[in-house]
Amino acid sequence: MTSTGDFEALVQRYRPELLAHCYRMLGSVHDAEELVQETCLRAWRARDRYDPSRASLRTWLYRIATNACLTALDGLGRRPMPSGLVTESEPLGPLVHGGEATWLQPLPDSLLGLGAPATAVIDRGSLRLAFVAALQLLSPRERAVLILRDVLDYPAAEAADILETSVAAVNSSLQRARARIRAAGVLQEQVAEPSDAEQRSWVDRYMAAFVRADIQGLLQVVTEDVLMEMPPMVNWFTGRENYASFMGWVFAKAGKAWRLLPVRANGQVGFAAYRRGDAGVFELHTLQVFTVTAGGISRVSVFQDADVFAAFGLAQKVDG
């Protein structure tokens, strides 16, 4: 085996993609970071038993990470988004808190260093919120099989070796997982999407209309079937008309004075929204992440959670 320093450097090279992998499995930024740390620790302790003739270091690390995630998921519930949990709501109905529901969290691009050469192997499409939310519909083992086979492109035999199961079991799980993901309607979303510049342009137009509280301007950049959801509230709805009704309510209740800070999450464009409080200071209100298609913004995922804000390092207040 290589020296201690070389081994640590080799493992660290894979850290971003291992974080992406654990996030897809767990749907939690904090839990994913903890499992990557555990993976590195397990690899360090077992480094003398690693046999490069049996598997590449990358595959060996994925074996450790995947099984650590499966252990962590044992007995835990899923991390859905509201649209995967309850039926569609009326846009002006009462907001209903999800109570003890544990929601899917967005992943800051900064934690992965997306765009750097070392992260080119990370499939950005598989990090999109809609896809990760759909993964939550699967059992942990189905989730692992789908990620290993369809995201990481491991052959069935290698996936079976990583999961310590048979090729037949992998193929059966993959068939079920693909059917469920297909039923969730997210596979086609990964086929083609606008360039980063085009996505940024759509969201810049959305931001400009938002700070003006211009509902008609917002309607010009969302698709006809736009979906909006906002954990920890279970409310969600689709369609421009419902979206317009809800945004009218938002501006009437929260005011029309806003400051927006661009963010990136899950390889997607978004912003942190600050509303002006009674003291004239702009206070953190929500973090919003957008799915952008060639025809405009098709999904608005709005988060209002202290853990999410902390993961993005967002200040609680900004000056006007």
TrEMBL record:
Q: Which domain of life is it from?
A: Bacteria
Q: Please give the start and end residues of each transmembrane region.
A: none
The UniProt keywords, alphabetically, are: DNA-binding, Sigma factor, Transcription, Transcription regulation
PANTHER family named among the record's database cross-references: ECF RNA POLYMERASE SIGMA FACTOR SIGG (PTHR43133:SF65), RNA POLYMERASE ECF-TYPE SIGMA FACTO (PTHR43133)
- Into which family does the record put it? Belongs to the sigma-70 factor family. ECF subfamily.
Assembly:
Interacts transiently with the RNA polymerase catalytic core formed by RpoA, RpoB, RpoC and RpoZ (2 alpha, 1 beta, 1 beta' and 1 omega subunit) to form the RNA polymerase holoenzyme that can initiate transcription.
Record-given protein name: RNA polymerase sigma factor
The beginning of the lineage is: Bacteria, Bacillati, Actinomycetota, Actinomycetes, Kitasatosporales
